[in-house]
Amino acid sequence: EVSPKCCCFLVLLNTLFIVGVIVYVFTVMSASTDDQPQNANSTGPRATDTLRFVAIITRHGNRVPLLDFPDNQYPLNNSKYWPYGMGQVTPYGRVQMYNLGVKIRSLYNGFLDPLYYTEDFYASSTAIDRTLISGEAFLAGLYPPTDFQVWNKNILWQPIPMYSNSQDKTVEAFFCPKFMQERAKNRLKYEEDYAANLSAIYNYIYEHSGVNLTTPFGMLSAWDTFIAEDTEGYKVPDWANGIYPEPLADLVGKMYIEYVAGDEISTNLIIGLFYEELLGAMGSKVNGTLSPDRKMYYYSGHDTSIVTLQAVLGIPKSTIIGMVKPGSALLLELHQNLTTEEYFVQVLYIDGSSTDLEPASMDIPVCSHPCRFNQLVTLTQNFTHITNYTEACQINNSLSYDLSSTKYVTSYNL
């Protein structure tokens, strides 16, 4: 039999235990609640006092490849591995772009308001499924809804307008006679410079897979299959280890650079109009005439977009990043010196295959460091003079040109 004193003691002990648990839980919840606003309101490392404007150009997330090898463990027509179909952004590609949006938010939070306002931010994309979907995933990571922008508690996402980026001519260039003429010259040069390397790759692929690839674009298709599978977390065929990632990556990277940025004409016909639009927005920011006075422009594009922009900025072919991984980004920041009030530009690059997505600084070798905005305008003026794209595409005042060979390239859409 338990004495009354003992019962009272047990009741008191039990009460103290319950109170202690309640206090502990409340403390933990309070700490968690306190952390949330602090994290949401924390200033990102790129949100400095000098920052005035940011332009972000991304390559779409990982996509389904277009070439199927006979012994492929992950057939392209198998929806178990590629549920969205050829050329479309894969499940992981969508995660890539979402994570990139989250990363950009962490870098520029404080400069960019956590709430979406059209006066602050502008987004556009080329008219291709994979860039549109990638852009939407990016925006979901950049602008998770909070406060009054939570319109459905079951869907932590909010619709943000994304406009057509008609000035990026990545796709249209392959219907441009002048570009195709220049590309043919650049292709011949590339094939001559790397004839032995290309022949070795073609022979290796044929011997191990039975697939007869005899052109640089055939080699590109093989690379595309391997990197798409690898990025998605699938196992690349054992025989491919002899050429993937190297020397295939180096050859494909050089091919990209030569084909789309081998000369000023080609570069201009792909990205000149877009660069002029981008430079115009930055110039308006400098002059105080940008309306709406936005802080950030986002463009969802292609690897070609990023390769050609590097060429415009005067980065030598030897150091251009030709192999732009899915989910990568080129960032152009406009800063203002607080003492001299002079504007300057800083260029950053995010490798989409990196684990931390940390931006790396890219020097503009033809410009001072930091690169003054007015100096950049002068140095890149050769890429801001197209007034009529149709006329710029003409050859000897004629638009007649055999484009029959471009069908494969166009379907590839880089």
From TrEMBL:
One of its GO terms (molecular function) is acid phosphatase activity. Gene3D superfamilies: Phosphoglycerate mutase-like. The keyword Endoplasmic reticulum does not apply. Keywords: Disulfide bond, Glycoprotein, Hydrolase, Membrane, Signal, Transmembrane, Transmembrane helix. CDD domains: HP_HAP_like. InterPro entries: Acid_Pase_AS, His_Pase_clade-2, His_PPase_superfam, Histidine_acid_phosphatase. It is an enzyme of class 3 (hydrolase). It holds the Pfam family His_Phos_2. It catalyses: a phosphate monoester + H2O = an alcohol + phosphate. Its EC number is 3.1.3.2. The chain crosses the membrane at residues 7-29. SUPFAM superfamilies: Phosphoglycerate mutase-like. Belongs to the histidine acid phosphatase family. This is acid phosphatase. It comes from Homalodisca liturata.
